[in-house]
Amino acid sequence: MAAEIHSRPQSRRPVLLSKVEGHQDAVSAALLIPKEDGVITAGEDRTIRVWLKRDSGQYWPSIYHTMSSPCSAMAYHHDSRRIFVGQDNGAIMEFHISEDFNKMNFVKTYPAHQNRVSAITFCLASEWVISTGHDKCVSWMCTRSGSMLGRHYFTSWASCLQYDHETQHAFVGDYSGQITLLKLEQNTCSVITTLKGHEGSITSLWWDPVQRLLFSGASDHSIIMWDIGGRKGRTLLLQGHHDKVQAICYIQLTRQLVSCSADGGIAVWNMDISREEAPQWLESDSCQKCEQPFFWNIKQMWDTKTIGLRQHHCRKCGQAVCGKCSTKRSSYPIMGFEFQVRVCDSCFESIKDEDRTSLATFHEGKHNISHMSMDISRGLMVTCGSDRIVKIWDMTPVVGCSLATGFSSR
Question: Locate the FYVE-type domain: which residues (predicted)?
C-alpha cells in the first residue's frame, strides 16, 4: 500500500508531505535546499535534478542535467551554492547553481578515484573536497587548483565519510566493519585510531562536533555511538532495525537520533537519558551458570561423561551460558536492545516490567531507503532509494519540538 500524503501533521509519527517521482533508476542521494522549498537529487540514471515546489504544491524539476556516468554521491554547500557530484567512474564534478535555482553551471572535474565514489564532503575554509570510494581510498583535493593533495588507502572499500572541519579529522567507514580516524594535513595524513565493534560493513556515519559523538550504522542492523570526546572508548549499542542501517542523523538540540534502514524502517532514538553500555562477551570452556562443558571442552566431557553443550551469551551480563540456563528472551532498551534478545535466567528475573519500556519510536517509510538527509532547522527529512521515489517528511511530530525556534515541547 502506498504511503498516504497528509496535509496536516498527525501526532507522534512522521508526516509524508510530498512524493517526488521522475528518476528512471535508483536515486543515490537527495538533499533539501536550506530555506527553500526545493530538493536536489542525483540518480543512477546519470541525472542531477533540482526540484522546486510550485504553487500547486507539486515539485517540478527546474534543472535537469545529464552526466557521463551514474551519480553515486553528492554534497551541496548552500552559502556558496556549490554542488559536488560523485560518479560511478570515480570522478567528482563541481557545479554552481544560480540564485533562482533554474541554472547550473559546470565548474571543474576532479579525478578523485579509480572506482565508484561513495561519499563527499566539502570544506570551504580549506577549499578541500574530501571523498571516499570503492577504490579503497579517501582522497582530498584542492578546489582552487583541482589538484590532488593526498590519498590514504584501506584494505576494503571505503563506504562512508564524516569530517570535523575545525580539527581536520576524517572518519572513514569501510566494508570490513572498521572505522578509521585520520588527521588530514595539506599533503599527508596520519592514522589516529581505528574503531572496531560492528559485525558487518559500515553503511553510514554521523559526527556531532558539539558533543564529540560519532554514530555508525552497519549492515549488521545495529548502530553504535562512540564517545570520541569525553569518556573515550565508551560505546553504546542500539538494536531495533530489521535490515541494514542506511542513514543516520543526530539532532543535538533534542538529543535524538534518527535512523533509516533498507526495509523502510524509520527509528527515532531517545539519547537524552543515561543508557548502559552493553557488556563484552565473556569466553569460557563451560557454562558460567551450571558449569556444564561446551562441546569443544573434550577433557571435561571425558571426565564428567557428559555431552558438550553449545555456547551462548547473555546480552545483559555478557556471561557464556548454555541453552538451558538462558531459556528466556527479553527486550532491554536502556542497553539498546529494543527487541527481545537472549538473556540468562537470572538476568531475566532482574529485569522489571518498567525496564522493558521502549526508548525509541519506530515508523514505516513504506519504501526502500538507501539515503536520508535532514534539514534540522525545519524538522524536515528527505528519503530516497532503489524504488526511484523521493519522499519529503515532516518529522516535528516525532522529534517532539519546534526546531526552528529551539523550543522543546517535551
Answer: 281-352
SS3 299: helix
E strand or H helix at 216: strand 213-218
> How far is it, in rounded angstroms, from Cα 162 to Cα 139?
13
Q: Give CA torsion, residues 152, 157, 160, 165, to 10 deg.
A: 0
Domains of the chain, CATH where assigned = 13-274+358-397 (2.130.10.10), 296-353 (3.30.40.10)
pLDDT tens per residue across span 271-322: 988 888 888 889 898 898 898 888 777 777 777 777 777 889 999 998 999 9
CA distance 195 to 205: 12
Distance from C-alpha of 159 to C-alpha of 175, rounded to nearest angstrom = 6
Return the amino acid letter for 301.
M
- The position carrying cell 548502530 is 223
Report the C-alpha gap between 291 and 164 in whole angstroms: 49
Q: Which long-range contacts (CB under 8 A, 24 or more apart) does 344-351 make?
A: 344/289, 344/314, 344/316, 344/317, 344/319, 345/289, 346/289, 347/314, 347/316, 347/317, 350/316, 351/316
Amino acid at position 200, single letter: G
Which of 174, 222, 215, 231 minimizes the C-alpha distance to 198? 222
Give 361-405 pLDDT, tens digit per residue: 999 999 999 999 999 989 999 999 899 999 999 999 988 654 444
DSSP assignment string, 38-75: EEEEEETTSEEEEEEE-TTS-EEEEEEEE-SS-EEEEE
The 10 Å Cβ neighbour count of residue 137 is: 20
Cross-strand bridge partners of residue 251: 256
pLDDT, tens digit (0-9, with 9 covering 90-100), for 317-367: 989 999 899 999 998 999 999 989 999 999 999 998 888 888 999 999 999
59 within 8 A of 52, measured Cβ to Cβ: yes
Its pTM stands at 0.88
